[in-house]
Amino acid sequence: MKARQLLFALAIFIFSAETLCARESAVLRNGFSISHDHHREIGSVTRLFLSVSDDEYVDISSADIVSYEPEVDSPAPKPEQVQAPASKSKPDLKQIVEKAANENQLDVDFIQAVIRAESNGKPTAISPKGAQGLMQLMPETATKLGVKNSFDPAENVNAGTRYLRELLARYHNDPVRALAAYNAGAGRVQQYRGVPPYRETRAYVAGIIRDFNRRKLEQERAAKSANKSARNATTQVSDGN
User: Fold this and answer.
1) What's the CA angle centered on 196, arms 192 and 145, to 5 degrees?
2) Ordered alpha helix ranges (H), the chain
3) How far is CA 99 from CA 89, 124, 161, 179, 208, in A?
4) What is 157-222 written as a DSSP string?
5) How do residues 102-113 score in pLDDT, each as one tens digit?
6) What is the pLDDT of residue 232?
7) pLDDT, tens digit, 9 for 90 and up, residues 30-87
8) pLDDT digits (tens, 9 = 90+) for 100-158
9) pLDDT in tens, 167-183
């Protein structure tokens, strides 16, 4: 999953209290698919309505949509977290995230956005429900993923990233459902055939997507500015000659 490719799939989603019940999926060129109830073409943009109501939608460039397939089947403030004893040394979280993301073919900024939403980057975070570490793994989930110490940043991030990769594969690269399942559980996503009507889950998914997109747009603007400066410098050198 490349950074610019994921940006096309992850637009800013705004969720209401209504149940999201998609009837079809828009298959994107980058391999992602976005579940929605219906769609409408508006010039060069296609508006995907996330529910029966027209109040919830995301706009995608029509050129990025390959086809439509029928469906067959944080962030909200998290509860106040208590802290486990602080570790003696602070690991290089950036390197840990980059390694885990590359091994699982996910975008680094995507994983970092999840970490910020889950623990605000605190390796020793513990939620009142018992979720632990940077990516807030429940003990049962951590055990299934082979984690021996959820407070070890490398173990926690590697397992959490692998779990996200599994969820993306399960939901045909639909990041919305994958994030919803990470937060509320795959059983709830299956029960509601999409994002559960839980305020925390909807805010959690929307918050991560906003965070991710904001950073990608900042990077894009910075790159354009750098390119412009380089072109101006080249022009000045040429004029000087």
Assistant:
1) 95
2) 3-9, 93-103, 108-119, 139-144, 153-170, 175-184, 186-192, 199-240
3) 19, 20, 10, 21, 20
4) HHHHHHHHHHHHHHTTT-HHHHHHHHHH-HHHHHHHTSS-S-HHHHHHHHHHHHHHHHHHHHHHHH
5) 999 999 999 999
6) 75
7) 666 777 778 889 988 888 877 676 766 777 888 888 888 876 653 444 444 444 455 4
8) 999 999 999 999 999 999 999 999 999 988 999 999 999 999 999 999 999 999 999 99
9) 999 999 999 999 999 99
Predicted TM-score (pTM) of the model is 0.64
Q: In the numeric block, which tokens belong to residue 97?
A: 């995230």
C-alpha 130/C-alpha 201 separation (Å) is: 17
Tokens of residue 14, six digits: 């705004």
Q: Just list the catalytic residues.
A: 118
Q: State the sign of the Cα–Cα–Cα–Cα dihedral 135, 140, 146, 151.
A: positive
Give the Å distances, CA to CA, from 140 to 56, 75, 199, 214. 35, 24, 24, 33
**Do the beta carbons of residue 131 and residue 110 sit within 8 Å?**
no
